[in-house]
C-alpha cells in the first residue's frame, strides 16, 4: 500500500522546525543500536478485510492498534486494492491538530514510528506541500523506530518528493544520495519490497532519462492497483523530446490495465497526438474531459490546447509547416496565406504565418 506520493515539486525549505524529542535524542545518543533479528513481514489483509475494519472499527485511540496492524501489513503490498476510505481516515486522524503539539505528535503517538509514517504520508499528500515539516516528521519516524525499514523508505520518499523545493538544508544532490542510501537499506532488510518507482524518480532527477523511464515503467507495473504511478511515468515519458515514436502502443498497455481512467485516457490522447494521429487524439481527449475534466487536465493546459488545435492542420498548413522547417519562407507564406483566405479563423495558420514573417526578417 502507498498513499500516492507523486513527484509534485522537487525541493526544500529550511529544515529549522522543532523536531520531536526522539529526533533530538537520536542526534546525541553515542551508543549504537543493536537491531534484533527481524521477523518476516506478515502477509497483507485482503481488501474485504480492510473494508470490514473501516466499517466495524472507526479509527480512534482504542482502535489504532488494529488499524496500525493493517497499515504495516499493507505498506509494501502494492498489489492490494486498498479502499480509499482506509487511507483517508488515517490521514484525517493524524492530520487533526488535536493530535499534534507544534510539529510533534502528542502522546500516545509521539513514540510510535508507524504513527509518524502515517502523519508523514498525510503531509506528502497535503496542498500546499510544507517541505520542511514533511522532512522533519519523516526523520522523527526513523528516530522512533524502523520496523521492516518502513521509516527508512518513508524518509527516502519524502526526500525525493521535496528535492526540487528551495530553502531546505543540504543540496539536491545530497538529498538524492541520502534517499538512495535509505532505499539500499530497505533492500537489505526487505528484499521483496518493490522499489523501482523510487529509484526511477532519483534517476530522473539526476538526468539519467533512459534509466529513469525503465525503472518508472517497472514501478508503474508494480503499483498494479493505482493508476497514479502510471500517470507519472507516462507524463514524464511523453514530455521528453528524446523519446521517439511510436507512443500510443505504450500508453495503451496502461489504458488496458486501468480502463476508463480519465487521466490515462488523456495521456493516450497525447500519445496519439505525438504519433500524428490527430483526429483520434481529439476524440479520445474529448471523451476523457467529458468523463473527468480535472483528471484530463493532468497532461497540462498547453498540451490540451495543442491537441484540439490540430483541427486546423489542413493540407495547406501542413505543407506550410514543412516549408517553414526547411526555411523556405516564401513558399511557407504562400501556403499559410492560401489557408487563411479560405479559413480566416484558422488560428494555427495565423500563428505560423506570423512566425514565418519574423523568421524571414531576422
Describe this structure in words.
The protein is mainly α and 362 residues long. The protein is 61% helix and 1% strand. The chain is built from 19 helices and two strands. A two-stranded antiparallel sheet has the order 1-2. A hairpin with a 2-residue loop joins strand 1 (100-101) and strand 2 (104-105). The model is unreliable at 6-37 (pLDDT under 50).
Number of strands: 2
Average pLDDT level: 89
Low-confidence stretches: 6-37
Residue share in helix = 55-70%
What share of residues are in beta strands?
under 5%
Would you list the SSEs in sequence order as H and E? HHHHEEHHHHHHHHHHHHHHH
Distance between the termini: 57 Å
> Strands of the largest sheet, in order across it?
1-2
How many H/I helices?
A: 19
The secondary structure category is: mainly alpha
* Largest sheet entry: 2 strands, antiparallel
Rg over C-alpha atoms, rounded to the nearest angstrom: 25 Å
Overall 3D form: elongated
Amino acid at each position: 500500500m502507498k498513499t500516492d506520493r507523486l513527484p509534485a515539486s522537487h525541493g526544500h525549505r529550511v529544515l529549522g522546525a522543532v523536531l520531536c524529542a526522539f529526533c533530538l535524542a537520536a542526534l546525541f545518543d553515542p551508543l549504537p543500536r543493536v537491531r534484533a533479528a527481524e521477523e518476516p513481514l506478515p502477509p497483507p489483509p485482503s481488501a474485504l478485510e480492510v473494508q470490514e475494519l473501516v466499517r466495524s472499527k472507526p479509527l480512534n485511540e482504542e482502535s489504532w492498534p488494529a488499524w496500525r496492524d493493517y497499515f504495516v501489513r499493507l505498506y509494501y503490498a502494492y498489489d492490494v486494492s486498498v479502499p480509499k476510505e482506509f487511507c483517508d481516515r488515517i490521514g484525517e486522524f493524524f492530520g487533526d491538530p488535536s493530535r499534534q503539539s507544534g510539529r510533534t505528535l502528542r502522546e500516545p503517538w509521539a513514540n510510535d514510528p508507524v504513527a509518524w509514517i502515517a502523519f508523514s504520508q498525510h503531509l506528502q499528500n497535503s496542498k500546499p506541500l510544507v517541505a520542511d515539516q514533511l522532512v522533519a516528521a519523516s526523520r522523527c519516524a526513523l528516530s522512533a523506530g524502523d520496523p521492516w525499514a518502513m521509516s527508512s523508505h518513508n524518509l527516502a520518499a519524502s526526500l525525493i518528493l521535496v528535492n526540487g523545493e528551495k530553502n531546505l538544508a543540504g543540496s539536491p544532490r545530497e538529498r538524492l544520495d541520502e534517499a538512495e542510501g535509505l532505499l539500499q537499506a530497505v533492500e537489505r532488510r526487505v528484499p521483496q519490497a518493490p522499489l523501482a518507482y523510487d529509484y526511477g524518480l532519483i534517476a530522473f532527477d539526476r538526468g539519467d532519462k533512459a534509466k529513469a523511464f525503465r525503472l518508472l515503467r517497472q514501478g508503474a507495473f508494480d503499483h498494479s492497483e493505482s493508476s497514479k504511478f502510471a500517470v507519472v511515468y507516462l507524463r514524464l515519458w511523453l514530455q521528453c523530446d528524446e523519446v521517439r515514436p511510436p507512443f500510443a502502443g505504450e500508453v495503451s498497455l496502461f489504458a488496458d490495465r486501468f480502463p476508463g481512467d480519465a487521466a490515462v485516457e488523456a495521456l493516450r490522447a497525447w500519445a496519439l497526438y505525438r504519433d500524428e494521429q490527430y483526429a483520434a487524439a481529439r476524440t479520445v481527449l474529448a471523451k476523457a474531459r467529458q468523463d473527468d475534466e480535472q483528471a484530463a487536465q493532468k497532461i497540462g493546459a498547453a498540451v490540451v490546447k495543442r491537441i484540439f488545435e490540430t483541427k486546423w492542420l489542413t493540407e495547406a498548413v501542413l505543407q506550410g509547416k514543412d516549408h517553414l522547417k526547411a526555411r523556405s519562407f516564401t513558399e511557407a507564406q504562400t501556403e499559410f496565406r492560401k489557408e487563411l483566405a479560405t479559413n480566416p479563423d484558422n488560428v494555427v495558420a495565423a500563428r505560423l504565418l506570423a512566425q514565418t514573417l519574423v523568421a524571414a526578417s531576422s
